[in-house]
Amino acid sequence: QQKKRLDVVKPVVSVYPAASRAHLEGKSSLLCLASAMFPPLVRFSWKRQKENGQLEELPPAEGEQLELRESGRTAAILLVHQPENSRYKYRCYVEHEGGRVESSIKLIITCLFQSFSVAVAPLDPFQSQCRVKLLCLLYTVLIVKSLLYCCGLSLLMSLRNKGPSTCCSHAD
Q1: Whole domain around residue 86: which residue ranges?
Q2: How far apart are alpha carbons 164 and 155 in whole angstroms?
């Protein structure tokens, strides 16, 4: 029995905001990842913490969960339905044979809406300027990459069409 207990490895738990199309519909996604555990069976649960510090169960109407299992790790995606300007700290709990592990993330819905949709909340000028500069840089890199690819293809085609070199002729 003691040997069996030593083989159990608690999961490493991390929580991240997950990007999805749900942001456009007034929802946010959270990803809770449990990895590096043995045995690989876990159960997820969520709680949210109000600004006053009180923990509460997540009402079923305000969230739905999807679980994804892969070798060595399991993820739960929580789709949160809540109004704009909500500020909660979400806690992900992972039940495992080795015990209970938790991780948390503070989710401020207005920030997430601003980064995904201009129509939901207006951006401040600094964010707008940064976004434009980032897009310009991205398009510049893509254009340069395309030009290099075309030049490389042109060079290869010209070398291929030229055929074997005739610069060195043998005397008869």
Answers
A1: 12-111
A2: 15
Q: What is the pLDDT of residues 46-58, one digit of tens each?
A: 998 887 888 988 8
Nearest C-alpha neighbor of 83 from the set 120, 134, 30: 120
Same domain for 19 and 50: yes
Buried residues in 22-61 as b, exposed as e (16+ CB within 10 A) = bbeeebbbbbbbbeebeebebebbbbbbeeeeeeeebeee
pLDDT of 112 above 50: no
Percent of the chain with pLDDT over 90: 17
Q: Count of alpha carbons within 13 Å of 34, Cβ hemisphere only?
A: 29
Q: Please indicate, yes or no, whether residues 25 and 85 belong to a single structural domain of this protein.
A: yes
pLDDT of residue 74: 92
What CATH number should be reported for the domain holding residue 96? 2.60.40.10
**DSSP structural state of residue 163:** -
pLDDT in tens, 28-38: 888 899 999 99
What's the token pair of residue 123? 């951006």
